[in-house]
Structures are given as structure tokens and as C-alpha cells.
């Protein structure tokens, strides 16, 4: 087999499957853990930094860093999918790590909140390039049979690293102050991620081409209109609005990250107002993504057996219950239960949504469809920052949590009504 990108030896056969590509898949899991760690360095510390070092009192102003991150990541997700199809996966991954390197330095040295917002623009661009690309590369490698498992492993690695880093930065901040110690972890992650992606990761676009060459239509004819030759505009329309499963997944992803934006920006403030120490806030900030991360090891694989739709619908409703308990709670114990529920619901949803996109989208334009889905999903960070900030300033933090809980419940109803089962063996 000839080289497709100059990064794979000519005598190395291209095969699909988790076992056949175990070494590269494992490496990409490790790389995505580092991507998650870059996000985790902010989860505990940054909302407290806004209030204690920069004197921000309005919730809308505090959440500008989440807004900047969400807008930058959403837009970059779309570009990452297009660039991955055009130039290959590996160059996009390496570019994402290059953008990540200045982020912890800006967080350490920022003399004003504007610098923090700029750092989060760069973080959003980096996350859009790196996380989107590791998703596409794992989907490329495993083929159609184990997509749920692959996405469970990918997202588990990323969000377990978010949790571990959030916990570690909480203890570092309590012991050594809010800056610079917590962000030195991010600097180490960026250096290691760039090195591995440049020296060890191999191109996977040829795996997608192999799958496309053997792609067969569904026996029910549901995807017959989604032929191989779609323009960028057509892929956007199908993913966002027209195709029932793709569009239902896109709106669920948006609402999922809307409530994650709320959790990231306002939960530490709510917990601090409840009298919790930075160390305990760090535990709660870590517990939610820890359950989310580890839970995906189970939910992703089970969705390959039982189907995607039931996990997505139930997961949105479990998230809504967790948010309601956050709004009702005033003790560490009750907030811990709420964090577990929120993490469990997100674990049911997160890898399953990505797997459903992979089920429906043709391999020839799948990377673009994943990018568009992630554009909507991570646009939820920006929507959550705006909505939560405005409602919190007008009515209080708990009212903002209740508002997002209701939206999450309604999103599950949309999935139940609009989405069909996308996994062939479960359909």
C-alpha cells in the first residue's frame, strides 16, 4: 500500500479495528488526557481568581472567560474538521498544541482580567484543534463496530484528566496561592502534548478512506440521501437542522455544555458563598468530571450493545436532576451527591452523542460533521456563560442553576421525540 500522507511506512498495512491499531489508539488516549489537563487547570482556580485578585463582582463579568473560551472553541471545532479532511489529522493536532503553549504563561503573568480572557481565547482554539482531532483519529482507527467504546475511552481520558487536575490545582492553590503554582501543571501538559503529537502520533486519514471504500448503506434506507459527495454547506445543513439524529444530537450537545459552562463558571462561587474551603471546592470541582470521565468507559461500550438514543435521553434527565440538587443544596454532602448525578448523566450523553454522529455521517465527510456537531456543542459554553451570568446577576446563582436544569430536561424530551436509534445492531 502506498503512502497517503508521508507519515506511514509504505509496507505498513492499513487496517481498521481497536486491536489492530492498539498502540496508536493508546497513544491518542494519552494525548487526549493531556488535552483535558489543559482544561482542568482552570476549573477550580479561575472563578476564585476573578473575585479575589481582580475584584470582579458581577457574574456576567466573571463568566467572560467561559464566553471567550466557548466562542473560540466552537468556531475552531468547525475549522478543525474541514482542515482535517483537507490537510490531514496530524498537522491540525500539532497546530493545536502550539497554540496551547502560551496559555499557562498568560494565566500566571496576567496583570488584568483582559489577559485572562485572551488566554481563554487561545485555550478554546487549542482545545478545538486538539480534542476534535483526537476524536476524529480514534473514529478513523476503530471502524464502525466499536465507535461507542472508542469515544468512551477518548472522553474518559480527557475528563478524568480534567478531574485530577482540578483536584490537584485546588490543593496547590490552598497551599501555595492562586498563582503561579496551579498553572505550572498546564505548562508541563503543553510541553508533553506537543512532543508526543509531533514525534509519535501518526496520520489516520487513510483509515477513513479505507472505511469509505467499503461503506455500505443501511438496510432500512434511512441514509440513502446522505451520499458521499456533499458540499460543506450541505454537511452543515444536515448536521445542524435537516437530518433528525444529527440535529437532535447537536442540540443536546449544546445544552450539555451550556450546563457545563454554568458548572465551570459559577459552582465554585456558589460553594465558596456556602462557606467551603478552596480544598473542598476543589474536591467538588473534581468529582463531577471524575464521574463523567470514568463513567464513559462503561456508557460508551454499552451504547455499542444497547444503542445510543436511550443513553442520551436518560442522561439529559439525570443531568437535570443533578442541577436541581445543586440549586437546592447548602452542604458539602448534598452538593457531592449532585456532582455525582451531574457527572453520571454527562457520562451517559457525551461519548454516545459523538458515536451517533459517527454512525450517521458518511466517512467522506464525517470529520466535517463531527466538527459541526462540536461547533454547536461547545457553543453551549458561550450560551451558558451569557444565560447564567445574566440570570445570576438579576435573580441570583441558584435561579441560574434552576433555569439551566429546566433547559436540560427539555433537551432530553427533544431527543426522545426527534432522534431515531443510529446504531445498526441496536436499531
Automatic annotation (TrEMBL):
It is a multi-pass membrane protein. It is found in: Cell membrane. Keywords: Cell membrane, Membrane, Transmembrane, Transmembrane helix, Transport. Residues 1-205, 245-427 form the Major facilitator superfamily (MFS) profile domain. The keyword Transmembrane helix applies. The chain crosses the membrane at residues 21-39, 59-80, 92-109, 115-135, 156-173, 179-201, 311-328, 334-354, 401-420. The keyword NAD does not apply. Its main location: membrane. InterPro entries: MFS (IPR011701), MFS_dom (IPR020846), MFS_trans_sf (IPR036259), MFS_Transporters (IPR050171), Sugar_transporter_CS (IPR005829). PANTHER family: INTEGRAL MEMBRANE TRANSPORT PROTEIN (PTHR23517:SF3), RESISTANCE PROTEIN MDTM, PUTATIVE-RELATED-RELATED (PTHR23517). This is MFS transporter. It comes from Georgenia daeguensis.
Amino acid at each position: 500500500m502506498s503512502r497517503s500522507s508521508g507519515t506511514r511506512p509504505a509496507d505498513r498495512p492499513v487496517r481498521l479495528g481497536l486491536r489492530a491499531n492498539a498502540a496508536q489508539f493508546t497513544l491518542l488516549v494519552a494525548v487526549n488526557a493531556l488535552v483535558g489537563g489543559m482544561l482542568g487547570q482552570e476549573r477550580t482556580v479561575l472563578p476564585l481568581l476573578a473575585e479575589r485578585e481582580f475584584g470582579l463582582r458581577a457574574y456576567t463579568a466573571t463568566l467572560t472567560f467561559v464566553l471567550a473560551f466557548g466562542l473560540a472553541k466552537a468556531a475552531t471545532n468547525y475549522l478543525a474538521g474541514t482542515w482535517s479532511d483537507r490537510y490531514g489529522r496530524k498537522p491540525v493536532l500539532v497546530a493545536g498544541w502550539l497554540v496551547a503553549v502560551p496559555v499557562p504563561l498568560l494565566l500566571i503573568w496576567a496583570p488584568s482580567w483582559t489577559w485572562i480572557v485572551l488566554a481563554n481565547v487561545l485555550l478554546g482554539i487549542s482545545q478545538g484543534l486538539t480534542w476534535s482531532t483526537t476524536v476524529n483519529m480514534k473514529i478513523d482507527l476503530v471502524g464502525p463496530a466499536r465507535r461507542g467504546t472508542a469515544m468512551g475511552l477518548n472522553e474518559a481520558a480527557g475528563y478524568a484528566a480534567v478531574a485530577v487536575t482540578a483536584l490537584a490545582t485546588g490543593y496547590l492553590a490552598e497551599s501555595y496561592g492562586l498563582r503561579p503554582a496551579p498553572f505550572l501543571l498546564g505548562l508541563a501538559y503543553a510541553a508533553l502534548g506537543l512532543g508526543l503529537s509531533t514525534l509519535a502520533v501518526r496520520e489516520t486519514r487513510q483509515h477513513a478512506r479505507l472505511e469509505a471504500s467499503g461503506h455500505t448503506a443501511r438496510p432500512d434506507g434511512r441514509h440513502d440521501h446522505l451520499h458521499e459527495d456533499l458540499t460543506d454547506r450541505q454537511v452543515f445543513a444536515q448536521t445542524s437542522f435537516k437530518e433528525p439524529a444529527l440535529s437532535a444530537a447537536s442540540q443536546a450537545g449544546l445544552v450539555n455544555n451550556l450546563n457545563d459552562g454554568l458548572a465551570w463558571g459559577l459552582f465554585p462561587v456558589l460553594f465558596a458563598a456556602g462557606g467551603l474551603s478552596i480544598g473542598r471546592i476543589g474536591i467538588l470541582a473534581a468529582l463531577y468530571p471524575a464521574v463523567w470521565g470514568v463513567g464513559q468507559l462503561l456508557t460508551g461500550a454499552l451504547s455499542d450493545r444497547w444503542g445510543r438514543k436511550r443513553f442520551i435521553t436518560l442522561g439529559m434527565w439525570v443531568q437535570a436532576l443533578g442541577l436541581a440538587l445543586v440549586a437546592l443544596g447548602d452542604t458539602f454532602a448534598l452538593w457531592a451527591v449532585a456532582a455525582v448525578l451531574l457527572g453520571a448523566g454527562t457520562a451517559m450523553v457525551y461519548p454516545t452523542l459523538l458515536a451517533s454522529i459517527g454512525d450517521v455521517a458518511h466517512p467522506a465527510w464525517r470529520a466535517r460533521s463531527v466538527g459541526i456537531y462540536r461547533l454547536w456543542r461547545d457553543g453551549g459554553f458561550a450560551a451558558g456563560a451569557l444565560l447564567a451570568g445574566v440570570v445570576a446577576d438579576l435573580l441570583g446563582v441558584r435561579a441560574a442553576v434552576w433555569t439551566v436544569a429546566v433547559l436540560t430536561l427539555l433537551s432530553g424530551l427533544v431527543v426522545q421525540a426527534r432522534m431515531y436509534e443510529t446504531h445498526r445492531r441496536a436499531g
